[in-house]
Design a protein that fits this description.
- The chain has a single domain, classed as Carbonic Anhydrase II (Roll).
- It is built from 5 helices and 16 strands.
- Strands 2, 3, 4, 5, 6, 7, 10, 11, 12, 13, 14, 15 and 16 form a 13-stranded mixed beta sheet that branches. Strands 1-8-9 form a 3-stranded mixed beta sheet, with no helix packed on it.
- A hairpin with a 7-residue loop joins strand 13 and strand 14.
- The N and C termini lie far apart (73 Å).
- The relative contact order is 0.22.
Length: 246
Amino acid sequence: MRLQVLAAGFLAAFGAVLAAQEHPHWGYGGKAGPDHWADLEADYGQCRLGHEQSPIDIRSARKADLAPISFAYADGPAEIANNGHSVQVTPSAGGAITVGGVEYALIQFHFHAPSEEKIEGKAHAMVAHFVHKSADDTLAVVAVLLDAGRENGAWRPIFDNLPGQADETRLIPGGVDPGRLLPEARGYYAFMGSLTTPPCSEGVRWFVMKHPVSISQAQLASFRKLYPHNARPTQPINGRAIEESR
């Protein structure tokens, strides 16, 4: 029996080592920071070698007749989690957006402080990335910029329930209506990019809302207490087309 217990302990420890090898630690500073992501795992090579990486500093965008984003988000139950890199909200059925006839289902949204995207060199206090997926597995991210100002009641269920510990998950009382979290004006910038975290996969459609949303200083501070800085630096544009809706 003792041998069995020892063997089980060895296998558990070995499994933990394998899990650590499969999911290397990454972060936003030091040897695990953005400059070293590509060194942590072979699958993270795009973080250094990719040519359409995100985020970017949006400059000299070309005005274009872009199709409006049709938002059909759904109010309902949602889970909020501290994943060790950010706070992520996962609606049980969050609805979808439609752009140019293509529908993308809302999967989750999460936060970065300060905003990863810049506009003409200016960063905002925070950004919320709404991550969507189409039927053919194409990803589309809607970025909503957040600035400190008036308290925003629509965001209260989220900022009042931020999980304080990594790997902590809870349900948001009363659920979330993602549609209320958007700016009233729906103009946007559009470009192709990547995930802003490892593995930095490319082929992601980005829609950055032009108009920021206001949250209170207290709401901002509640997130920054957990994550003072979890933003990847802006990446080279490399000749990409950046379009701005009229």
